[in-house]
Amino acid sequence: MDIEQLALLVKKYIEVSKKTELKPGISYILERSLKIDALRTLIQKELKGTNDYLRLFYMVFFLFEGDSMEVAKYKAFNELYYLILQEVGDKEYIEMDCDYCGGTGRIECDECDSYGFADCSGCDGAGGFTNYADGYEDCEECEGQGEKVCDYCDGQNEVECSECEGSGVIESEDEYVFLNNEYWVFYGDEVSDELSNATNKSNNELIDAYDILDKIRGSVYLLKTESESVKLTLYDFEAEFGDYYDAQGKYSVNSEYNLNDFDLSKSFNISKFSNSYVIR
Ligand SMILES: [Zn+2]
Ligand SMILES: [Zn+2]
Ligand SMILES: [Zn+2]
Prior knowledge:
Strand content: 25-35%
Distance between the termini: 25 Å
Structural class: alpha+beta
Number of domains: 3
Mean pLDDT: 90
Bound molecules: zinc ion
Largest sheet: 4 strands, antiparallel
Number of helices: 9
Shape: elongated
Oligomer: single chain
Radius of gyration: 33 Å
Helix content: 25-40%
């Protein structure tokens, strides 16, 4: 079965199963189709990889929009783009391994030099006393040994790290800003133009990406969001993007590819996600 026949089949299925008169968006088409075992199996058997799955679903989308098969196929095979956006997310102090104990939460006992025993304080380590009346007597406190188990570490040779109170982690000195990645597929170079115009106009290269993506609602597909994917110290962040509070929630366009030049199969595949199958 070729991709055109598959597109007609998927379209037919969506027509039968959709409950409103509205034209379906790309997310709807994709998620509904992959949810049906037989349809998903057929698509995976007939098509080569993630790029072609997406082309198929976009063809169905364009057909619903009223395009002819020829136009739908042309658009799906030539004018789909893949975009990586970075959202300026939260800023916070992070937990790091404690330098003092190397993250173990324990440090050597200073009191006994990690020997576990210490000179007996009763006899100053001598083990006994000599007096003129009775001659030599063992020290009762250490029973003549001259040393006792170290009180400080209880003979364990190490004690809780005071720097991190034994947890092994401390809060970073610097505050960090998280940048969250979003991966999108969309149709048309108009969007690319708007994104780069907005980027050029902005003084810090950050934009309200959703203002632009919203305009083409229905033909944008969010492949994946990765929260906390990259972090910069607040200092480094502000050196690059200016004041954090002005930048928070904005996006930078990290990279953009025409799907013809980028194989998504390496990063995304069809996978089960709760009750439905989606591309992740
Ligand atoms: Zn520590
Ligand atoms: Zn003693
Ligand atoms: Zn000790």
